[in-house]
From TrEMBL:
This is Endonuclease/exonuclease/phosphatase family protein. Residues 118-323 form the Endonuclease/exonuclease/phosphatase domain. It comes from the Bacteria. Keywords: Endonuclease, Hydrolase, Membrane, Nuclease, Transmembrane, Transmembrane helix. The chain crosses the membrane at residues 16-36, 48-67, 74-91. InterPro entries: Endo/exonuclease/phosphatase (IPR005135). Signal peptide: none annotated. The keyword Transmembrane helix applies. It comes from Sphingomicrobium clamense. GO terms for molecular function: endonuclease activity.
Length: 332
């Protein structure tokens, strides 16, 4: 094999070696800082990109074997640590880890009642109403939870929403409006602003069967962005697990958490509320960005607790939004 200097020249290979080492060190600093117990947005944002960061570091690691001898050991060690930490954090959501809950056919269990639910972040600036409407009509869920719905979205989805006997709308002019619709009997609904004034959480008490109600939680907090540290977002997520109106033992949560399942916040949500995630031991099931989900951003969550079982779940094809919808069949 010919050395890279044969193609690039000594000056260029030196620049290339320094560039690889510099990027490796920056990635290492970022991944080490991300382990700190901080709610600064730039620290918490690293959680969102652990999977693509691991892929990128692996590509750089292969390139690092061909750089100059002086930079090579440091670059390889730094990149190996980056990959190791990110894989360690993501590991529970790989197909190699043990599953957290069983998924299967409960149709033969006569004591169970089954129903479907679908969550969709429509993207408030999106105007592709027909694609969203068509996907909802095709899946025909018993429970529908929509996010980023302003009044224009509510108006344009009126024909779809009219097929549900129970509809709650909470329009917001920006990106945090909600719509909840159900064909199941609804005992009550609450739209609660746990933290931010304009980022509500939806609580609904459903009765798939008269004997055993189920609580549905729909959540869409703010993401970690410049100027938006995650202290209030984290409280919003954790409060959603604690402050359910009826404190029912059986519950479902769906929605765009603007957080990934392996973050400290979502892990705390799970532990505090006793939630189970069907993706554990099966994969990350990314939902964002909709057109390049191989990047691995599973921002849209689905969890259950109590006697709620999941018969099947999936991330749906693109529908015009920047998020893909999540669809599941539950048995209770």
């Amino acid at each position: 094999m010919r050395r890279p200097t044969a193609f690039l020249g000594r000056t260029n290979i030196q620049k290339f070696s320094i560039a690889i080492l510099a990027v490796a060190v920056l990635l290492l600093l970022a991944v080490l800082v991300s382990l700190a117990p901080s709610d600064m947005w730039f620290v918490r944002a690293v959680d969102l990109v652990r999977e693509p960061m691991a892929y990128f570091a692996a590509m750089l690691l292969m390139a690092a074997f061909f750089i100059n001898d002086r930079e090579r050991p440091l670059a390889i060690i730094a990149l190996a640590i980056v990959i190791g930490i990110n894989v360690w954090r993501i590991w529970p959501y790989s197909a190699f880890a043990a599953a957290e809950m069983a998924i299967g056919d409960h149709a033969t269990d006569t004591d169970r009642v089954c129903f479907t639910a679908m969550s969709v972040n429509v993207k408030v600036k999106n105007r592709d109403y027909d694609r969203i409407s068509t996907q909802i009509e095709q899946r025909d869920p018993d429970v529908l939870f929509l996010m980023e719905t302003d009044q224009r979205w509510i108006n344009n989805l009126s024909s779809v929403l009219s097929t549900f006997p129970n509809v709650v709308t909470h329009a917001q002019p920006k990106a945090f409006g909600l719509v909840f619709a159900s064909r199941l009997p609804v005992v009550k609904t609450n739209v609660v602003e746990n933290t931010y004034r304009d980022t509500p959480t939806l609580y609904a008490t459903l009765t798939p069967s008269p004997r055993s109600p189920v609580e549905f939680i729909g959540l869409h907090p703010k993401p970690p962005l410049p100027g938006w540290n995650t202290e209030l977002r984290d409280k919003n997520i954790v409060n959603a697990a604690l402050q359910t109106p009826d404190r029912l033992p059986d519950a479902i949560v769906m929605g765009d958490f603007n957080d990934v399942p392996w973050s400290r916040t979502t892990e705390r949500f799970k532990e505090t509320g006793g939630w189970k995630d069907p993706r554990v031991g099966r994969g990350t099931y990314p939902t964002f960005p909709a057109n390049i989900t191989w990047l691995g951003w599973p921002l849209d969550q689905l969890m259950v607790k109590g006697n709620v079982a999941i018969e099947a779940f999936e991330v749906l094809p693109e529908n015009g939004s920047d998020h893909r919808a999540v669809f599941a069949r539950f048995c209770h």
